[in-house]
Amino acid sequence: MNLLTLQNVQNFDAYVFSKQPDYHEPTVRQEFAKAVPLRTVVVYCYDPRAVGVPAAVAREFDEVYPGEILTDEQGNKIASTTTLFEVIVAGGRAIDALRSITVAQHLFGIKNIVIVHHTHCGATSFTADGIVNAFQKEQGNDISTLYEQDSICISDFVTSLQHDTRLVRASKGTPHNVDIYGYVYNIDTDELSLVTQDKGAPVQIGA
Ligand SMILES: [Zn+2]
């Protein structure tokens, strides 16, 4: 691994939108909204066996995934045709996806948030007390108040999906109009089962 010199680090400014001389935030935001026709954010587990989740959700919601990267005349990658973004986190627990949902709404706009928990997930193999105790013993760190207890592991899928649907809905960073869904994904059959859904409120102009 090469260490970067200070000069090289400064040159990265050329790749930062907000560092451009003619930067105008509202204009840049409009350009981003046009670059990707995003509709759906899917939150799922980083377990390699869950890799089929986004394609299964794309089939269920008729989304374009993975779509195509679009380039300009110089070959620069400037846009995508996908309508589905992935947020990949341990257990697919929504607590780790809240900021990504807010940013996705701000830059592209979203209609659906799909939370997917999967069969035989590692997050069902331990308890909140178990991981807290192990961390205390192995790392000497008390993580008992670091994360919301109900978001640490999965004790049963109905509880975890209902909890995560409520958590996303309650977040101030979630747009009011989005529909939120909770599914179980069977890693062996590639099937999705709807467990819970929460339809969004109509958009109120100026509200
Ligand atoms: Zn998992």
Automatic annotation (TrEMBL):
GO molecular function: carbonate dehydratase activity; zinc ion binding
Stretch forming the signal peptide: none
Known cofactor(s): Zn(2+)
Residues the entry annotates as binding Zn(2+): H118, C121
InterPro entries per the UniProt record, alphabetical: Carbonic_anhydrase (IPR001765), Carbonic_anhydrase_sf (IPR036874)
Keyword list, A-Z: Metal-binding, Plasmid, Zinc
Oxidoreductase as UniProt keyword: no
Bound cofactor: record note: Binds 1 zinc ion per subunit.
Domain of life: Bacteria
EC nos: 4.2.1.1
Catalytic activity: hydrogencarbonate + H(+) = CO2 + H2O
Coiled coil: none
Family assignment from sequence similarity: Belongs to the beta-class carbonic anhydrase family.
Protein name: carbonic anhydrase
Organism: Acaryochloris marina (strain MBIC 11017)
